[in-house]
Amino acid sequence: GGVSESELRDVAELVRDDLLASPAVSAANLQGARDYEIDIEISERMLRKYGLSLRNVADIVRRENLELPGGTIRGESGEILLRGKNKRYVGDEIATLP
User: Cα(65)–Cα(58) distance, rounded to whole angstroms?
Assistant: First the structure.
């Protein structure tokens, strides 16, 4: 009903991660989920003001939007999959990049 596509994807990713943490599950993939897309508009004036090029901005956004595997923790009850998420999903988060 009233759940956004991004919220559904977030829940699906959590379920996938929980499944992958089970020793009985060897693979779990999301199907039908669209990739996120964010448009960033920057004026030439602002680029000049900060001494940046569009390539600089693209490199910063790429560097600051990483999702890295962190390994697993094994315990008596199974494994926990670790993942480092450093993604930004909304304009306000992109606007605060260093």
Answer: 11
The residue type found at 10 is D
pLDDT tens digits for 55-64?
Answer: 888 887 777 7
Q: How far apart (Å, rounded) are the C-alpha atoms in residues 82 and 42?
A: 35
pTM above 0.90, yes or no: no
Count of structural domains, the chain: 1
Q: At 81, which helix (H) or strand (E)?
A: strand 78-86
- In 12-77, the DSSP E strands lie at 66-75
Q: Which domain holds residue 32?
A: 5-95
b/e code 1-27 from CB counts within 10 Å (16+ = b): eeeeeeeebeeeeeebeeebbeeeeee
